[in-house]
Design goal:
single chain; mainly beta; 8-stranded mixed sheet; 6% helix; disordered N terminus
Length: 481
């Protein structure tokens, strides 16, 4: 389980020697230590964005400032509109922070009118017939569901009736900003130019992973492609940013998350691995740096490839899990399961961030066809993965509670019978699981074939079902209830 830290703690850990240092070291190794020029119109400098899975990001922006000696106020436009002001950290050589303010009241027609209450503006009316303009001075009395004006002693409502009328303002209020802006009062001990490193946490940035797996049943392999999807709803574009993705939830103090993902209907079963991935780590987090700088535009979804593995060893099979005392009048479909390992020996060998795996199989004409999908969690290297992709059409299981006898007190003896059928033209192996057992109080009295105990509450049989045939499994359990 990743370490969970909150706002200021996370910033303290990462801003100085954590992710910032990791990005700087990687940049120097790759020979990309030069600072890129920002796009026209952006006040940002050398931007680095570290994005977590849970709708939070660490933004680091190095800008060149020309400061006078003494106390001065410096504005930082183009910060995130969803900045968490309490997490701001600013490092300026030979200068100390006295005060900081985040101005998020943005300039818009409605905000401009609201700030004009009590002020005098000019109304310009155009005669639709002649095109002639007339101007009147008007005092704004109120903006409550409409604009109420005092025009030469008469009270009027500025109606939105389609007539050509426009309002002209004498000035823009100082409290309104064209872009989200952080203003900082600094006490500088000298004049001159110097770099300033601005760091802060922001909401509205997130990422997720998606996988495409092309399964070749004859060869017993899959080709796996991994895609990262970046989402930016922060209200700000981050231009030409060095981007680092972190697999793991960093936590937070507000509970906001990018998207709620309901649990899968058929849970993926993972046997955790014990191999150490070569991928760079920071504490308990795995780092996924993008190879090149990228612009993360506001209100944009961007996809970037991060994994391309060919010929990964894989196999298909079936699984059926029966709940305790589960009994059916008709046979039910087994799950189709794709099994593979993300170990180096199997051809994959990486720590896999959580995401959805979509499985494709080639048809008789060689065209890839979609056969199902499911999610995996953050998966260590070396893990074995059993991914349910759907319900089997031809492989079914009918569980039946044959008899249930009370032995006395709270002890019971239960006889179960499982009928497995296979309508396919080739044999199938079904992993049959009986769940709901309490092994501290459960004894398998009798079984037609030997079961395996996978966990404290499940007995598992590997059942070979012949082509166009059936198999029967019986078991008797002595339980407390």
């Amino acid at each position: 389980m990743p370490t969970r830290v909150t706002g200021l703690t996370l910033l303290a850990v990462l801003a100085g020697t954590g992710v910032a240092a990791a990005q700087s070291d990687r940049q120097q190794r790759d020979g990309r230590a030069d600072v890129p020029a920002s796009a026209a119109g952006s006040a940002q400098g050398d931007v680095s964005v570290t994005i977590y899975n849970d709708n939070i990001a660490l933004v680091q922006d190095v800008r060149q400032l020309d400061l006078a000696n003494g106390r001065t106020t410096q504005s930082f436009p183009d910060v995130s509109a969803q900045i968490r002001p309490e997490t701001v950290s600013l490092a300026v050589p030979d200068a100390a922070i006295v005060e900081q303010n985040f101005d998020f009241d943005l300039l818009s027609p409605s905000s401009l009118m609201e700030k004009a209450v009590g002020e005098t503006i000019t109304l310009v009316r155009t005669n639709p017939a002649t095109g002639a303009e007339t101007r009147e001075r008007a005092r704004v009395l109120a903006v409550n569901g409409g604009v109420v004006l005092d025009i030469g002693g008469r009270i009027e409502v500025l109606r939105d009736d389609g007539l050509p009328v426009r309002a002209v303002f004498d000035r823009v209020p100082q409290s309104l900003r064209a872009r989200p802006t952080l203003s900082v009062t600094l006490a500088s001990t000298r004049g001159g130019a110097r770099p300033a490193r601005l760091s802060y946490l922001s909401r509205g940035l997130g990422w997720s992973a998606d996988y495409v797996a092309l399964f070749d049943e004859k060869a017993g392999t899959i080709d796996v492609q991994g895609w990262v999807t970046l989402r930016n709803s922060s209200g700000t574009t981050f231009t030409n940013a060095r981007t680092l993705l972190v697999a793991g939830e960093a936590g937070g103090d507000d509970g906001n998350r990018a998207d709620f993902m309901p649990p899968p209907r058929r849970p993926t079963r993972v046997q955790p691995g014990t191999q150490t991935a070569e991928r760079e780590q920071l504490g308990d987090f795995y780092l996924y740096p993008l190879a090149e700088r990228t612009t993360i535009a506001d209100k944009q979804t961007k996809q970037v490839s991060f994994l391309d593995a060919k010929g990964v060893a894989a196999s298909s099979g079936y699984r059926f899990e029966n709940s305790w005392l589960g009994s059916a009048n008709e046979a039910r479909s087994a799950q189709s399961v794709l099994r593979f390992a993300n170990s180096g020996a199997a051809g994959l060998g990486d720590a896999l961030p959580a995401g959805t795996v979509r499985v494709y199989v080639r048809d008789a004409r060689g065209q890839p066809q979609f056969t199902g999908e499911n999610r995996i969690g953050h998966t260590p290297q070396g893990s074995s993965i059993a991914l349910p992709t759907g319900d089997a059409f031809d492989v079914k299981v009918q569980p039946v509670t044959v008899a249930r006898t009370r032995l006395g007190g709270d002890r019971w003896r239960t006889q179960m019978r499982y009928r497995l059928t296979n309508a396919r033209s080739r044999p199938a192996t079904v992993e049959l699981a009986q769940a709901g057992l309490d092994w501290a109080d459960t004894r398998v009295v009798e079984e037609s074939r030997r079961s395996e105990r996978r966990d404290a509450g499940t007995a598992v049989w590997q059942v070979a079902v012949p082509a166009n045939g059936e198999a029967i499994v019986t078991a008797t359990f002595d339980t407390r209830y």
